[in-house]
Design a protein that fits this description.
Elements (H helix, E strand, L loop, with lengths): L14 E9 L3 E8 L5 E8 H6 L3 H12 L9 E6 L3 E7 L4 E2 H8 L4 H20 L2 E2 L8 E3 L5 E3 L6 E2 L17 H4 L7 H16 L9 H9 L11 H10 L17 H5 L8 H7 L1
Antiparallel strand pairs: 1-2, 2-3, 3-5, 4-5, 6-8, 7-10, 8-9
Helix pairs in contact: 4-6, 6-8
The structure holds the ligand CC(=O)N[C@H]1CCN(c2c(Cl)cnc3[nH]c(-c4cn(C)nc4C)nc23)C1.
């Protein structure tokens, strides 16, 4: 009988802690190296009392359960978790090029080649999740990371659930990515991620989400009416995909598995993937 790989028990002393990478909603993330293997990872630390105070321990357990079982090149791996008396620790994959929203803010907006590569990779990750009856429900630049070779990594599964569902937890944070059926608190399914993908496509190419307004109520109205204005500099092919995703009726939204064949993706696919790290190495 083949001995199964023993599941290692981790503790804080298993790691050398490096620099602080950033703050998530409920915790801090540090770069860390596993002493036994030298493997670099990201260690997310959360205070138990904070999880209890924000009443998110159920959501947090779901995040661990869902993300631990996912294996996809565009989904950030969760390798394991452990806790001590007052904190919980997540051992996450380290994304070598950091946070998407910082890159987007710094660049302002992406060109068709970069944006279409990112959208195609995110569509691939969403397709993988939907086949497992999981919807992400919180797709936005803040929840995207970039790996060492420039590939996108979906992270933060705090809001993901098994379909179909109707939201029970009150929403906080930006409404910008929510489809009509969610702002109208109707039952919803995996096609909410299609709407968010449309919002993300728009934001990558324009620099801000399509229905952004200072007041929540105004954003809500623009989403409900699909009050979409696409600037003239957005290419015809990109505008076509954005319009096909930002459909009020979920069943009319462009299906994920057709995205790799959409003209905008095909036209902007490089002959070979740009592998920044390799380019630098080869000089
Ligand atoms: C919600 C949330 O956890 N946000 C972020 C904090 C850092 N974190 C990372 C996570 Cl969870 C995983 N890998 C990361 N890599 C980086 C990073 C790399 N560079 C060069 N700069 C940064 C920053 N950050 C992470 C997720």
């Amino acid at each position: 009988k083949q001995p199964s790989v023993p599941v290692r028990q981790y503790s804080l002393s298993s790691f050398e802690i490096g620099r602080k990478l950033g703050k998530g909603k409920f915790g801090k993330v540090y770069c860390a190296r596993d002493k036994a293997t030298g493997y670099v990872c990201a260690l997310k630390v959360m205070e138990k009392k904070e999880l209890i105070h924000f009443k998110v321990e159920k959501q947090f357990r779901r995040e661990i359960e869902i993300q631990s079982n996912l294996r996809h090149p565009n989904i950030l791996r969760l390798f394991g978790h452990f806790h001590d008396s007052e904190r919980v620790f997540l051992i996450l994959e380290y994304a070598g090029q950091g946070e998407m929203f910082k890159v987007l803010r710094k660049k302002g907006r992406f060109d068709d080649v970069l944006a279409s590569q990112y959208i195609c990779q995110i569509a691939s990750a969403l397709s993988y999740l939907h086949k497992k009856h999981i919807i992400h429900r919180d797709l936005k630049p803040e929840n995207l990371l970039i790996g060492l070779d420039g590939e996108v990594k979906l992270s933060d599964f705090g809001w993901s659930v098994h379909t179909p569902t109707s939201r029970r937890t009150t929403m906080c944070g930006t409404l910008d990515y929510l489809p009509p059926e969610m702002v109208e608190a109707k039952d919803h399914d995996s096609r909410v991620d299609l709407w968010a993908l449309g919002v993300l496509t728009y934001e990558f190419l324009v620099g801000n989400p399509p229905f952004e307004e200072p007041a929540h109520k105004a954003t809500y109205k623009r989403i409900s009416k699909v009050d979409l204005k696409i600037p003239p500099y957005v290419s015809v092919e990109a505008a076509d995909l954005i319009r096909r995703l930002l459909q009020h009726q979920p069943e009319r939204r462009f299906p994920l598995d057709q995205i790799p064949d959409h003209p905008w993706i095909v036209k902007n696919r490089p002959y070979w993937p740009t592998n920044n790290a390799a380019d630098k190495k080869s000089g």
